């Protein structure tokens, strides 16, 4: 997605070290962190599945997806 761990961690207000553990499966993200990712235009479904969501979670997260 052309976003560094440092950039992503700033988007969702966590440390880069914590986000690194999330990527490796050691930690989980909270709802508000996933919502923040969507608010920054990230496709959360793609992050977890490598498949585009096509606005699948727009109503659930109540944010505008691009």
Question: How would you sum up this structure, described in words?
Answer:
With 66 residues, this protein is mostly helical. It contains five helices and no strands. Helix 1 packs across helix 2.
Order of helices and strands: HHHHH
Helix count equals: 5
**What structural category characterises the helix and strand content?**
mainly alpha
Biggest sheet descriptor: none
Residue share in helices? 40-55%
Amino-to-carboxy terminus distance: 14 Å
Shape: globular
- Residue-averaged pLDDT: 79
Strand content: under 5%
Kindly state the number of beta strands. Answer: 0
Multimeric organization = single chain
Which runs of at least 5 residues are low in confidence (pLDDT < 50)? none
Output the radius of gyration.
11 Å
Supply the key terms.
5 helices, mainly alpha, 66 residues, globular, single chain
Secondary structure layout plus pairing:
Elements: H1 5-11, H2 16-23, H3 31-39, H4 44-49, H5 58-61
Helix pairs in contact: 1-2
Sum this structure up briefly.
The protein is built from five helices and no strands. The chain has helices at 5-11, 16-23, 31-39, 44-49, 58-61. The mean pLDDT is 79.
